């Protein structure tokens, strides 16, 4: 166990606590069992190390372990944690739990047997707690960490530092949200950069190699992480990548299952399930008609990439502008709100508000008869009658 404690100390010493993801302040750190899931590259490990550093505990009191460490190929998590607890352990931060066989059962045992031990763990976005054998859902608080919002991107790059705003603030008739921005703020100055480079925090380290790294990340998710999905045969990883390329070449689009099956070499009876797998991996987003029950797998009305950066990663030329706008909107708004496909307009949010997304010349013609309908316009800073698209990147 000593080698694990030494690795933890080294990692904690190197981590900076100057900039934190929005989720850091929303987590109830006092809870005995906390789970944080999200796609690779969104900053889950950094979140754990920052909290551990701020606790200022001795290595024997608080430690960080990655469960894909070679140590755990020959050592039991429960037995190692038991030793840690007996030597004064109070906080156990576990990373990459989905890479440890039967991880949920082991964590349940630790939770039940050591009531004075606080456990925080992270795992891939593909984790479905409700299906895990350990039945952790009644014992824990679960959080999901998305990529950077536009607001966070500005802050992490030392450009501007603003507080998040709510959807209610954005839609308010008095437009008080405008008061939070200084007169010299130019919201579009870095907007295109965000669409291409801003969603994953590692762009701050290496903007030049970002596209290559993002493509490698997608491969790792499909070929490595998705092996943990129940019902997914890892031998079909190549077909999954083909499907993702088909989606990327056409999004946003209303899927024709037969055509997708032909282009991706996937049996048409499996296409919907595979689309669902890609959504679980936070690589795409599926939009369903309002009022549709998702208890069983349904064919979506529209398919989007998970975020605009992926559009650049998969495109051989500049991505379609309309695609980028809608992908940006759904990626930012879906973090805190439910989105469905409406009969009129582009998006129905929380089953109440309808949004039509377009360029600066977009009119309200398509949603004139819709109650609570709003036009969201790109390429404008502070429009009078419309809502600026960039502003929806300040929701978290």
From TrEMBL:
SUPFAM superfamilies: P-loop containing nucleoside triphosphate hydrolases (SSF52540). It comes from the Bacteria. Pfam families: AAA_14, DUF4143. Residues 31-154 form the AAA domain. Residues 225-336 form the DUF4143 domain. This is Uncharacterized protein. It comes from Mariniflexile fucanivorans. The lineage of its organism: Bacteria, Pseudomonadati, Bacteroidota, Flavobacteriia, Flavobacteriales.
